[in-house]
Amino acid sequence: MNLQKQRRKRGVILTPQGWQKLQTAKAEAEDCENDGIRYSLEALSFRIGLDSDTLCKVFNRQIGVDRSTLNRCFAAFKLLLDPQDYYRPQPEGETITGLSENIRKIRWDWGEAPESGVFYGRTEELSKLKHWIIEEHSRLVALLGMGGMGKSCIAVKLAREIQDRFELIIWRSISGCSAVNDFIAGLLKFFANDEETNLPETLDGKISRLIQYLREHRCLLVFDNMETILKGCDASYRKNGFCNCLGHYCEGYEGYGELLKRLGETLHQSCVVVTSREKPQEIGLLEGENLAVRYLQVKGLPAAEAQKILMGNGCFSDSPTDYQQVIEFYGGNPLALKLVSRTIQNLFAGNLSEFFKQKPGVFGHIRELLDGHFDRLSHPEKEIINCLSSNCQAASFTELRSQISPNISLSNLMESLESLTDRCLIDKDTPKFIEKGATVFYLQPVVREYAMSR
Ligand SMILES: Nc1ncnc2c1ncn2[C@@H]1O[C@H](COP(=O)(O)OP(=O)(O)O)[C@@H](O)[C@H]1O
Ligand SMILES: [Mg+2]
Asked: Is the minimum distance from the CB of 312 to ligand 1 under 6 angstroms?
């Protein structure tokens, strides 16, 4: 078959940028023309004038389509197709010149990466992350935040947007992961096209071999859900009433700490992105003194984007205050907003004000989400949360100290308060130097409500 024929058969595929353009225009059209309800495949097919099979190919970005098909999709949403919006796929494994025999192909393994679906906002977060990784060559970057805040989604979006800067991309979900020796062995095998037979025996040796690859080639590794191997606070780890286990690893998984430490400390040209609900101790220790190690606290979505989630999931109201109240209550947490939308649709036909009139508080999966965080806390940490929850306003350190049980020593209070901010369970406002005020700590409304009802 000649080359031209082959090309025609492969067609073109949307780039992440083109895909996002189309998704955003579609979401906007849904907001404006379809009461915020997502178009069904049939409705899209009717609107664009293409059959649903072809549309699936366009949106799934796995199989090429004609460029005229993309033109048609874009035109249906009043968009112009730019050359940066699509590319001609290379057959998987096509050779890049200049690479060694061991890694000689553009390769990726997205593992269990969540599918990149509708994604709103986060432009500031993404540009900060890109700056760290591309401009500053950070080697270890952590995305930290409460469950459901969108850490994994940001990591997928980031990886897809910067994938062409790397020779190799690997996504690993750490939950249910094996012992660190097997984990690294799996990575090394992937690097070496399954040809790696002579693996070093020790953990140290395996990490060194991994770093050797990361030095020779620019690779992007994502370790998702790191908190699943971090220790919760069970009674055996409480020392003098304080649990000093935050960011430490569960028994048998300590080697992952060594792995992160070496990846952050040692020179290489790759980047490892970690997502976690809690800050692994290596990130805390290395960040700051070492520009190659960074972390980003992922907070709730701003109101405009959070509202799109509610509307996109079939919730509506005539009053902007209704949206605002629901968004503030759930702290802009995208998962909580999606979960609550389902209930609002099921029980209140999507009517936000009807739902809010019931003062529903914390329920269902949102309670389970918070249970997951709270069950891991030490006694002093729980005391601080209780104290802040009975005090609706934010409290400074001095105010907290005067209100908290005298059984909790000053050092316990300081350590626990720091660990709660690292666990992303309390927020703080630090005044600018010129204001000379004190830092104040507070809970998001949903966390306060949850703590009060426990
Ligand atoms: N920026 C966003 N726009 C739209 N939906 C989002 C966004 N961020 C997260 N979500 C949705 O919220 C849910 C939780 O996101 P996820 O990335 O899994 O959170 P985390 O990793 O912090 O626990 C997912 O269903 C995801 O689709
Ligand atoms: Mg996640």
From this structure: no
Q: Which position has the token pair 């790397």? A: 166
In angstroms, the CA 298 to CA 324 distance is: 20
Structural class in CATH, domain 3-87 = mainly alpha
Closest ligand (CA of 300): 1
What distance in Å separates the CA atoms of residue 145 and residue 366, rounded to the nearest whole number?
A: 15
Tokens, residue 106: 């553009």
For ligand 1, whether the C-beta of 129 sits within 6 Å is no
Beta bridge partners of 171: 222
Cα-to-chain-centroid distance, residue 108: 19
Question: What would be the CATH architecture of the domain defined by 371-453?
Answer: Orthogonal Bundle (1.10)
Ligand 1: nearest atom to the Cα of 298: 22
Q: Which amino acid is at 428?
A: K
The tokens describing 412, both together, are 């316990």
143: Cβ below 6 Å to ligand 1? no
CA of 369 to the centre of ligand 2 (A): 12
Query: 146 C-alpha to center of ligand 2: Å?
Result: 9
How many Å apart are CA 117 and CA 426, to the nearest integer?
Answer: 29
pLDDT tens, position by position, 338-359: 988 988 998 998 998 888 888 7
CA distances from 176 to 134, 227, 276 (A): 31, 11, 14
Q: Is the pLDDT of residue 253 over 50?
A: yes
Percent of the chain with pLDDT strictly greater than 90:
33
Q: What mean pLDDT value characterizes the chain?
A: 84
Decide if 107-297 and 371-453 have a common fold. Answer: no
